[in-house]
Design a protein that fits this description.
Elements: H1 3-21, H2 27-47, H3 51-73, E1 78-83, H4 88-96, H5 98-104, E2 116-122, E3 125-135, E4 138-146, H6 154-161, H7 164-169, E5 174-177, H8 183-190, E6 194-198, E7 201-207
Parallel strand pairs: 4-5
Antiparallel strand pairs: 1-2, 2-3, 3-4, 5-7, 6-7
Helix pairs in contact: 1-2, 2-3
Length: 208
């Protein structure tokens, strides 16, 4: 295989990465994938001496870098709202994200106790919601969901690390979760939960 084959494959790879980026629901992932694809396109453009392709993609790389810096340095305004299962806004959110929720929580409609339903607003947009049952000093999460656009861990870090008064007023000293899917393991560890194994089941615990 000669060098021109590698150059052509670089062009194909860049095309695929850029195309994948356009399918991302997370803005951070979209920007990262798009930046990597555009960077490869920039190199590809210079290698084949197609300078308009190289320059426009170099510009796109710069735009992505600027937006990523803004995303990572932005000070988000978080708000917590506690509601009941009949709250109109909560029901609307539940219906809107139902298809995605059912994939992770097949028995979704059984996870709606009245004890504690928490909506997390981020810059007044719905960023996620949690449903849990309070027993003694423990909040056991039955559902912990972040909306696709806000799956960058910031929402979880805020909810389980900052609003101390919310937990104190309810006498909650710890939060536990028994996630059904292993992809939650990394998420809970990243926001300060520690892991225990009980009868081959993963339990994540956060001391408040």
């Amino acid at each position: 295989m000669n060098s021109i084959d590698y150059v052509e494959w670089a062009g194909y790879m860049a095309s695929v990465i850029v195309a994948i980026s356009l399918t991302m629901t997370s803005m951070i992932k979209l920007r990262w994938f798009n930046m990597v694809g555009s960077l490869i396109f920039t190199i590809y453009g210079f290698l084949i001496e197609a300078y308009p392709i190289a320059l426009v993609n170099a510009f796109i790389v710069g735009v992505n870098i600027v937006f990523l810096i803004k995303i990572y340095t932005k000070k988000d305004l978080f708000t917590i709202l506690e509601v009941n299962r009949e709250d109109a806004y909560f029901r609307s959110c539940l219906d809107y994200y139902r298809e995605s929720l059912i994939e992770e929580y097949p028995d979704l409609d059984k996870k709606l106790p009245n004890e504690s339903i928490i909506l997390i607003l981020r810059d007044m947009d719905i960023a996620g919601f949690c449903i849990g049952a309070i027993q003694d000093d423990t909040l056991e999460l039955k559902l912990d969901y972040a909306t696709p656009a806000y799956r960058d861990f910031k929402t979880g870090k805020y909810l389980f690390n900052n609003p101390k008064s919310f937990y104190k007023n309810k006498g909650i000293k710890r939060v536990i979760s028994k996630p059904l899917h292993h992809h939650y393991n990394k998420y809970y560890k990243s926001i300060g939960f520690y892991e225990e194994i009980d009868q081959n089941k993963h339990i994540f615990i956060k001391e408040i």
